[in-house]
Amino acid sequence: MEKAYILHMFTPEKNLSPFDVNMAVDAGWVSTFPYTRLEVGDIAALVQDAIFSRGPSGVKRTALFIGGRDPKIAMDMLNAARAAMVPPFEVSVFADPSGSFTTAAAMVALAERELEKQGVGLQGANVLCLGGTGPVGQIAAVLATQAGASVKIIGRQLEKAQAIAALCNAEYGGGKTHIEGAADADKASLILNADVVFATAAAGVQVLNAELVAAAPRLKVAADVNAVPPSGIAGLDAFHKGEPIQGSSSGAVGIGALAIGNIKYQTQNKLLALMGDRARKTDKPVYLHYEHAFDTARLLAKKA
């Protein structure tokens, strides 16, 4: 009898995200099983229980999803899972904590698309990640700097912003990132040289007001993941798909939460499906994280 498609879903949090469970089922996983309140040290034993119980054919229909809220913990868990594999007992793994990897990938890919419409790109662009100390801001900063941008993570507290920037440089970028931290109090001066702005603060928090939008002479693209009023960026709403931002003196265009969410949804769906053997060209497992999300989101953004 053919073995069912089973996705084991790991998180260090109290609960697994219902969003991720729905996405997994929609991507073709027949059964999903949650494992909560996990630590990195728990992963190896759980992985080996999963792989040795199904046999070499069954592991092709088995995979792991890693959620939670912390990108570093998620990547540590992914690495621990990969290290615990014993070929040919080896399954695919996908990390996407709080959807931050796929959300950040979608936002940066759409911003890149809008820049390319203007004849430029992320290479050499000055990017501000406002409210950028959270998971989405961290990964957006990493992806943008890997694409050649000069990136600053902006937070209310300078020390925290600098600490998060240092964490990104040390943990996520493979030595390819040079992100800086800066204080929210310095936005008025920083906006003067900004080509791109990412708003990744908590829902309902405006991080760039109308005065600062009007005072940004080089601003080309602004993206906001916030769908809850007020907008994270004045003059930009959730429905923006590259339309001009009201009040921008430079003619900047906006990308709203719904446009970002559409590409994020498609990206997560494709990566979840890719872990199943039906969607891969070979039996070799895949280990997926923010870089793979960005590759996928870039392709989807070009077609959108």
How would you sum up this structure, described in words?
With 304 residues, this protein is an alpha/beta fold. It has two domains: 6-95 and 263-290, 3-Layer(aba) Sandwich (Rossmann fold), CATH 3.40.50.10280; 106-255, NAD(P)-binding Rossmann-like Domain (Rossmann fold, 3-Layer(aba) Sandwich), CATH 3.40.50. It is 40% helix and 17% strand. It has eleven helices and twelve strands. It has helices at 18-26, 43-52, 55-58, 71-83, 100-117, 135-146, 158-171, 187-190, 210-214, 257-274, 290-303; strands at 6-10, 31-35, 62-66, 92-95, 126-130, 150-155, 180-183, 196-199, 221-224, 241-244, 253-255, 287-288. It has a seven-stranded mixed β-sheet. A five-stranded parallel β-sheet has the order 2-1-3-4-12, with helices on both faces. The longest helix is centred in the middle third of the chain and has 18 residues, at 100-117. The N and C termini lie far apart (41 Å). The model has no long low-confidence stretch (mean pLDDT 94).
